[in-house]
Amino acid sequence: GPILWALLLFVASSIPGTSYPEVSFAYADKLVHTVIYGALGSLLAIAARFNFRWSGVRVWAFAVAVATLYGASDELHQLFVPNRSADLRDLLADAVGAGLGAAATLAGLRALAKTQRL
Q1: Distance between start and end Cα atoms, the chain
Q2: Range 94-111 burial, b when 16+ CB lie within 10 A, else e
Q3: pTM exceeds cut of 0.70
Q4: Three-state SS across the chain?
């Protein structure tokens, strides 16, 4: 789950910046960060929900915190990759994506649990 996804993100962020295709719309990179960290937030929320007896708010906070810390480490990692850089706006997009992904997943799990009780 989340560990494999984080490994994939690490590998992707190790690719030099000139190797990525050009995208023609504004803030495309922020959208990419939001989506890929949304997936990480979702996977972390699932893992926490099924492994800990925490409230939904605590699961959400855990998923956002871990994904954001991982995003910060990834931004630092990019300082050592040719033609890449650390960007606080990317980290913000990571945190927003993690929050949205975790929230959507928890809402989906809650709705699924309600249908199972019928």
Answers
A1: 29
A2: bbbbbbbbbbebbeebee
A3: yes
A4: CHHHHHHHHHHHHCCCHHHCCCCCCCCHHHHHHHHHHHHHHHHHHHHHHHHCCCCHHHHHHHHHHHHHHHHHHHHHHHCCCCCCCCCHHHHHHHHHHHHHHHHHHHHHHHHHHHHHHC
Describe the crossing of helices 56-78 and 88-117 by its angle, rounded to 10 degrees: 150
Each residue of 42-62: pLDDT tens digit?
Answer: 999 999 999 999 999 999 999
Model confidence over 7-41: pLDDT tens digits? 999 999 999 977 676 777 888 899 999 999 999 99
Residue 75, token pair as written in the block: 């931004």
